Amino acid sequence: MHSIPGRRLIISLFLIFLLLPIYWLVNMSFKTNAEIVTTMTLWPHQPTLENYKRIFTDESWYSGYINSLTYVLINTVISIAVALPAAYGFSRYRFLGDKHLFFWLLSNRMAPAAVFALPFFNLYSAINLFDTPWAVALAHCIFNVPLAVWILEGFVSGVPREIDETAFLDGYSFPRFFVKILVPLIASGIGVAAFFCFMFSWVELLLARTLTSVNAKPISAIMTRTVSAAGMDWGLLAAAGVLTIIPGALVIWFVRNYIARGFALGRV
Amino acid sequence: MDKIVNQKAWFLVLPVFAVVAFSAILPLMTVVNYSMQDTFGNNQFFWNGVGWFKELLDPSTDLGGRFLASLGRNLLFSAIILAIEVPLGIVVALSMPREGWTVAVCLVILALPLLIPWNVVGTIWQIFGRPDIGLLGYTLNSLGFDYNYVSNEFDAWATVIVMDVWHWTSLVALLCYAGLKSIPDAYYQAAQIDGASRWAVFKAIQLPKMNRVLLIAVLLRFMDSFMIYTEPFVVTGGGPGNSTTFVSIELVKIALGQFDLGKAAALSLVYNLIILIVCWVFYTVMTNVGTERPQKKGAA
């Protein structure tokens, strides 16, 4: 009843459209450069692991993945930690300027990264955080914290207020109620919010690239190095690309049952 | 649910306020400061008042011309991708399988493009579209189309748009799917008894249930396409010529490329202001949709 005629065909075509470019990248990552440039082959005729081997053995390559994952994880932890109490506050209480504050937060989620690139560069250089994962993690808070507040507010509002009141009557202090009762109740919401923080921090490049130079360089910035005097190293580029897809794919697999609700930001 | 008035709630919100204020207000102050000044390097600044803003909004100057042209391109781009992604996303959501293991597979594949770093999305399409080594470019050229996104403006636009559709339609589809999932079966049974047509079911049941998530989808898609930077930058580099130079690309060129701080700051402020206004309109509409709902339910 909820479906439309020809739905199998439509969904299959769309999924093929999504997978084809990714397949092409995977396909190229297993080819040698000679095969890529000289012939057009639908699958690698002389499959090689050389491209991957180079990434895993060269420190300047694999350190990029470590750097990226470091700032993404720091960012996710900070975002969730500060957003949880705020989400509770917005959901339960009315206070001076609450609506304006919520809108202001939301507007920061929408602010273009390009606007902040230069001032962030100045700010983080001034406080000696430039070229550390902390700079990128804090910079990404500008769009992830508002998003986390927005998602968690939806989930906290789904918890009936009677539960709070009963807990306080039972003599729970506020922090204890928060950790022992509220957090377990909205665990799936926290998972969804963490997923989104991970996602938006992982895919962002402009700020991450602007705020790092050598030590904390993210993988996405290192990938631009494959252009050299000898021409493009397409195989290596493709292999590096495939490896950036894997963490995302793993995370999706873990939250697959919550994806639909998560994308509605907990408010359907 | 009526909320209790309690000013102490500010303490709960304070950490968020501190973190975001640190990343938003301080840098924005720098931008405002720069936007009023001119620099000739060596950290020497001169007061320029509203000069940059005047230049920015006057299409006859270099800065104004570049800004307004990129703004026009960006609005056209946003309009095109919204016109494609929203209907397509609805159709895909309606085509989702109802149950079984295929649901999980479809959801995972749909979400996949959303978690690929944006520059890798650019790389994927850069490779995929190349006439010499890419499947798409090679196929189109062997079919007799003269397709080359590096030299042809139309092809560059088509590539950037198809790339965005590939990248973000899933978001719209997943949002709509979540909206559809929340419709109780009883609604459909009632429609069946009334002998409602497929189209009537869509218009009277599914679309109203989706309107809230659709608003979120349109808002997110408009904002993200309006500040798009990485993907077109990787694929076309803003070219050929300036044909795919969107506002963010222009801004980064001026700010980090030429280090023209005053001009970049003035552009940033105007850019931010446009986004703030659009965001406010959406926010107002969205909160109104939210408050209307329970009343309707109460009446029924």
From TrEMBL, chain A:
Task: Give the ABC transmembrane type-1 domain ranges.
Answer: 65-255
Which UniProt keywords are given for this protein, alphabetically ordered? Answer: Cell membrane, Membrane, Transmembrane, Transmembrane helix, Transport
According to the lineage, what is the superkingdom?
Bacteria
Q: How does it sit in the membrane?
A: Multi-pass membrane protein
Gene Ontology biological-process annotations = transmembrane transport
* UniProt keyword annotation of Transmembrane present: yes
Q: Where in the cell is it found?
A: Cell membrane
Q: Give the residue spans that cross the bilayer.
A: 9-26, 69-90, 102-122, 134-156, 177-203, 234-255
Q: Name one GO cellular component term.
A: plasma membrane
Q: Where is it mainly found?
A: membrane
Family indicated by similarity: Belongs to the binding-protein-dependent transport system permease family.
The name on file for this protein is Sugar ABC transporter permease
Q: What is the lineage of its organism?
A: Bacteria, Pseudomonadati, Pseudomonadota, Alphaproteobacteria, Hyphomicrobiales
TrEMBL record, chain B:
Q: Which residues form the ABC transmembrane type-1 domain?
A: 71-282
UniProt-recorded name of the protein: ABC transporter permease
Query: What is the scientific name of the source organism?
Result: Bradyrhizobium retamae
Q: Any keyword Acyltransferase?
A: no
Which superkingdom is the protein from?
A: Bacteria
Q: Quote the Pfam families the UniProt record gives.
A: BPD_transp_1
Q: Which Gene Ontology terms describe the biological processes this protein takes part in?
A: transmembrane transport
Q: Where are the transmembrane segments?
A: 12-36, 75-94, 101-128, 156-180, 213-230, 265-286
| Keyword terms | Membrane, Transmembrane, Transmembrane helix, Transport
Subcellular location per UniProt equals: Cell membrane
Annotated GO CC locations: plasma membrane
Family, similarity comment: Belongs to the binding-protein-dependent transport system permease family.
Question: For this UniProt entry, what is the primary localization, expressed as one broad class?
Answer: membrane
Q: Does the keyword Transmembrane apply?
A: yes
Q: How does it sit in the membrane?
A: Multi-pass membrane protein
